[in-house]
Amino acid sequence: MTRLSKTQHDLRVFAAMAVYVVLLLILLPHARRAEDSLLRLVYALLPVLPLLYVVWLLGRRIWQADELEQRTHLIGLGVASAVVGVFSLIGGFLAITKALPQEAPALLLIWVFPILLFSYGLVREWAARHYGGGLCDEADGMPAHVRLLIVALIFGAVGAWSYFHSTDNFAFGVFCGIATAFFGAAVVFGLRRWLRPGNHAGDR
Amino acid sequence: MNNKVRELRGERGWSQGDLAEKLDVSRQTVNAIETGKYDPSLPLAFRIAKLFRMTIESIFQPGKD
User: Fold this and answer.
1) pTM confidence score
2) What residues make up the domain containing A58?
3) How far is A1 from chain B (nearest CA, A)?
């Protein structure tokens, strides 16, 4: 199995996440309305398939990583596991003491995977920088601002879809807010790259 | 640990990317080794030594601590 370049890996992850979001938006309303319990199950679980693909991509990347990369993966996954563990513990205590609304435990469970991935990405970036590298290294993949811009576009598209196909203003606001945040980050990273001496032509 | 990897690479006119490819590691790993931020494992140190046709101890020397 050949090692994917960082750009190939990133593009596959983005594509899978885009499919996940689209499936989630299309199927979840049907899952709530479906009369047949089997159909409801299928609707509810289909969005998990692209996430399983992302997990497989992540496993493949770690498996094919060199020793230093594996160390940064280990640090990232270790800290992320601890963060998720603490988050789940706090959520569990709050749910047991009924300090949260009745539907909160299910929502908390949905946030476990995003928090795991976010913490993992953040800590791995820190670990890579500690060793003098960085996941945003333009020489080995898609520039950080382009990655952030793609994420902003995905969320923007979902927001637009939500605006035209759903009456849920909260979802529309959330997606637009996330898209704006990622767009802002893309602008900051793009400017930082542009202002860096000797990087105007992308030569490193 | 101190090492002569950057010096040896420079003598051969290789970029960090070239060396990374020859060692089957990432460019960041080569950079981390050259800057002393990461000490390679014994198997990787042997690969480096074999590539430069030198002994490990002539490339890697213990640091002050």
Assistant:
1) 0.76
2) 7-64
3) 15
